[in-house]
Specification:
5-stranded mixed sheet, 5-stranded antiparallel sheet, 19 strands, globular, about 425 residues, binds molybdenum atom, binds the ligand Nc1nc2c(c(=O)[nH]1)N[C@H]1C(S)=C(S)[C@@H](COP(=O)(O)O)O[C@H]1N2, alpha+beta, 8 helices
Length: about 425
């Protein structure tokens, strides 16, 4: 917390007014920060950084975070990672703010490790039900018009370990199979137009160049609507982990369809029913039947701070609660917060960009009285859909599921500020 010195009193009192205007829960607690003149060595001692010059402009040709941020990394879960080439790691959501995921922190999900591809040798082929079967080099692709769009990518298995009850201690692990970046890419429809679709073309089969040769059936209508063949993320080339030099972007739909290291798109008249859309990424219902394709990601949210990896160190008083919300069907219109396990709800403040099929950032500022809390957030998207509770989901889906768990998450804040993953009935 910033220390309070006399000059900032005005700022604090206006913040006080703002909190009173609707966000504060109870009466205001004591001043946030120490009164100047109490002898804090952090401002009295002469530090190295004021006495000596630092690194010059030649020291860091590609910048990396401060050494004090070394703990901010993707992490995996040992028991989920029998073999790292076919596993997942998780975005450290509790360390991030705003809506953009930094490239080096985007979670990774590989079925056969990271393909390291020389772009000069990479090709994208379009074949099947087209007038001309085409092969593009990366240079060819750079001559098509491109667009910049911010989208979330969520693995359908995100939160999948929580179907049977609370399990993983941290939003990084329960909700970290998501990232949100700005893609630069070519609308897929331009490439399909170039090849010329035959009248019976209805489905696409994008294929990856990695050793898993990942394929998924994609309805043509979605491809023509908003899919991108992306080559940049957050302004720079895709990272190898994210599919360098080309990946498919399928806005709002499950991450598995976003084929990385994209090398071929076959055009057909019906879905292929390959492994990744039958044995995997399929929702098995209670009666033993499975859903036939679940593409769209339903509205979901999670409180990232506080959370098990980010306890409340200040014990009471001014508290900033924050989190993220998203919907595969549009924007997030509202996020509600409960401090008492879903009995009472109050609207959070969505801040920053509200974009279609993109992450939204919300805040809820309140005065914590130090008593235990059961924190929940629920997202309401632009279609009016309300994020369900876990038990509402189980009532419809049963308990055979792994994928598409968008149920409301509960964090139990104890009076010492520690936070644990719990469920309320
Ligand atoms: N070629 C290829 N594409 C792939 C995968 C893969 O293993 N190979 N994994 C898929 C899965 S299951 C997900 S959730 C996303 C993960 O994207 P990310 O690694 O950028 O987070 O990529 C998808 N695309
Ligand atoms: Mo996935």
């Amino acid at each position: 917390m910033a220390k309070l010195i006399d000059g900032t009193r005005n700022k604090l009192s206006s913040r006080r007014g703002f909190l009173k205007a609707g966000l504060a829960l109870g009466g205001m607690a004591a001043t946030t920060g120490a009164i100047a003149g109490e002898g804090d060595p952090a401002i009295l001692e002469k530090k190295d950084w004021v006495q000596y010059t630092g690194d010059g402009v030649d020291a860091r040709p590609y910048g990396t975070p401060s050494e004090f941020e070394e703990h901010v990394t993707r992490k995996n879960v040992a028991w989920l990672t029998a073999d790292p080439v076919s596993s997942v790691n998780f975005t450290p959501l509790h360390e991030l703010d705003g809506i953009i995921t930094p490239n080096g922190l985007c979670f990774e999900r590989h079925h056969a490790g990271i393909a390291e591809i020389d772009p000069a040798e990479h090709r994208l082929m379009i074949n099947g039900l087209v007038e001309k079967e085409l092969v593009f080099t990366m240079e060819d692709l750079m001559r098509f018009p491109r667009e910049n769009r911010v989208y979330f990518l969520e693995c359908a298995a995100n939160t999948g370990m929580e179907w049977h009850g609370s399990q993983l201690n941290g939003c990084q692990f329960t909700h970290g199979m998501i990232h949100n970046v700005m893609y630069t890419g070519i609308p897929l429809k331009y490439l399909l137009e170039e090849a010329g679709l035959k009248t019976n073309a209805k489905w696409l089969l994008p294929e990856g160049a990695d050793a898993s040769g990942m394929t998924r059936s994609l309805p043509l209508a979605k491809a023509l609507e908003d899919c991108l063949v992306a080559f940049k993320m957050n302004g720079e080339a895709l990272r190898p982990e994210q599919g360098y030099p080309l990946r498919l972007v399928v806005p709002g739909w499950e991450g598995n369809m976003w084929i990385k290291w994209l090398r071929r798109i076959e055009v057909g008249d019906q879905p292929w029913h390959h492994r990744e859309e039958t044995a995997k990424y399929t929702d098995l219902m209670e009666n033993g039947k499975a859903r036939h394709f679940t593409w769209e990601m339903d509205a979901k949210s999670v409180i990232t701070n506080p959370s098990p990896q980010a306890p409340l160190l200040h014990k009471s008083g001014h508290t900033v609660l924050s989190g993220i919300a998203w919907s595969g069907r549009g924007k997030v219109d509202r996020v509600d917060i409960s401090l008492d396990g879903g009995r009472n709800w109050r609207p959070a403040r969505i801040d920053g960009l509200s974009l279609d099929k993109s992450m939204h950032r919300f805040y809820y500022e309140f005065d914590w009285d130090g008593s235990p809390l059961l924190l929940q957030s629920r997202a309401i998207d632009s279609t009016g859909y309300i994020q369900p509770t876990r038990n509402e989901l189980r009532a419809i889906r049963g308990t055979n599921s792994i994928y598409h768990n968008n149920g409301i998450q509960t964090w139990h804040v104890k009076s010492d500020g520690e936070v644990e993953n719990v469920e309320v009935s």
